[in-house]
Design the sequence.
């Protein structure tokens, strides 16, 4: 009977340790928010998770009669081509504090920084810049289905700060009798701060 109990205990120990994250284990994270990251288990209770998100695109738009007061200059219709790019990089730490079979709980402080650029050409010239950073704190759960596959979900809160600058120029025809253009330029600067709840979920594929 004693040998049987020892054998069962050994099997359970092997199964549990096989599903735990070993120090040095590395994987790819994929999920929501839409970012791709890497998770590195520094120890069996501490992990680091850097991530990056990237978007880029362009749009074409046209409109007319937006500036009726300038109708004496001729056609004031707008035809604009706009391109934009946003890059966000972040890092968070995972500190595991509890384990129940294949389920592990953790807390996760994080920081992210991003920049966005956009510009428009043709009738309306626009050059905008946007930078922001976010500080977060989350509670999460990690479920290990396989030694190389796991899922996670987390919820918490975050502080966001953003800084935006606008520079817009309306290109109009040359005034009669003058050989210089008469552009109309507008500049602005905006700072914003807010607190918000946050959630995240995704999967992890371990390749080491």
Sequence:
């Amino acid at each position: 009977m004693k040998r049987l109990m020892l054998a069962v205990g050994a099997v359970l120990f092997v199964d549990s340790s096989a599903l735990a994250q070993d120090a040095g284990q590395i994987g790819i994270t994929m999920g929501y928010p839409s970012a791709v990251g890497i998770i590195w288990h520094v120890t069996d209770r501490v992990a680091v998770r850097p991530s990056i998100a990237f978007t880029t695109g362009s749009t074409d738009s046209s409109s007319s009669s937006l500036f009726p007061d300038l109708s004496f200059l001729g056609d004031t219709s707008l035809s604009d081509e706009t391109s934009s790019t946003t890059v966000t990089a972040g890092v968070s730490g995972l500190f595991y504090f509890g384990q129940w079979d294949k389920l592990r709980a953790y807390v996760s402080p994080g920081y992210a920084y991003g920049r966005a650029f956009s510009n428009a050409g043709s009738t309306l010239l626009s050059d905008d810049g946007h930078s922001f950073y976010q500080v977060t704190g989350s509670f999460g759960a990690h479920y290990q289905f396989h030694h190389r596959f796991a899922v996670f979900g987390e919820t918490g809160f975050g502080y966001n700060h953003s800084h935006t600058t606008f520079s817009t120029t309306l290109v109009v025809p040359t005034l009669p009798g003058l050989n210089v253009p008469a552009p109309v330029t507008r500049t602005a600067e905006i700072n914003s701060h807010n607190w918000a709840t946050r959630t995240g979920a995704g999967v992890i594929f371990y390749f080491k």
